[in-house]
Write a structure and sequence with these properties.
The chain is built from 3 helices and 7 strands; from the N terminus they run E-H-H-E-E-E-E-E-E-H. The protein is an alpha+beta fold and about 150 residues long. The longest helix has 30 residues.
Length: about 150
C-alpha cells in the first residue's frame, strides 16, 4: 500500500521569502515538529544531487535518513528523495504566488512502506496528514511572525 499525502497553506509572505526559508534544510527543525537534527552530507547548497541527513521522530521511532535533492526549480518546486530506512519517501515542496505579498505552499510526501512499515501504512497516512498540517501552520507562524 503506497502512501501519498498532500497538504497546503497560504502564507502572508512573498514567494521569495517562503521558498528561500522552506527550501533551506537547516531551517527544518524550526518548523517540522518531528525533525530533530539536520546535517549536510554534501556542501550546503540546495541543488540537484546535494544530500542532507535528517534525524526524525515519527510514530514513536527515531529515524535517520539521507535525502537527495532530485529536482530544484527556484521559487517553484523542490523534490527530495530517500531510499533508506523502512519507508522510502519522496518529499515535494511547491510554491505559488497568490499575489505579491502571499504564497501558497504545498507539501507532498509519498512513498512505498517496506517491512514492518507496510503493516503500519493504514495508520501512517492519517498521522502524516496531521503532522504535515501542523508543520505548515508552524511554518506560517514562523514566517508571518518575522514579517
Amino acid at each position: 500500500m503506497s502512501v501519498d499525502v498532500e497538504t497546503d497553506i497560504a502564507i502572508a509572505r512573498p514567494i521569495e521569502v517562503v521558498a528561500a526559508y522552506a527550501a533551506d534544510p537547516v531551517n527544518a527543525p524550526e518548523w517540522y515538529a518531528n525533525i530533530r537534527t539536520v546535517e549536510w552530507v554534501t556542501g550546503p547548497e540546495v541543488r540537484v544531487g546535494a544530500q542532507v541527513r535528517f534525524v526524525a521522530r515519527f510514530l514513536g521511532r527515531t529515524l535517520t535518513y539521507t535525502y537527495q535533492f532530485v529536482d530544484v526549480v527556484p521559487l517553484a518546486r523542490l523534490v527530495m528523495r530517500t531510499e533508506e530506512g523502512p519507508f522510502p519517501m519522496e518529499t515535494t515542496y511547491t510554491w505559488a504566488a497568490l499575489d505579491e505579498h502571499s504564497t501558497r505552499m504545498t507539501l507532498r510526501n509519498r512513498g512505498e512502506p517496506a517491512g514492518f512499515s507496510k503493516l503500519a501504512a493504514p495508520f501512517m497516512e492519517p498521522a502524516m496528514r496531521r503532522a504535515n498540517r501542523k508543520d505548515l501552520v508552524t511554518l506560517r507562524s514562523v514566517l508571518e511572525g518575522s514579517a
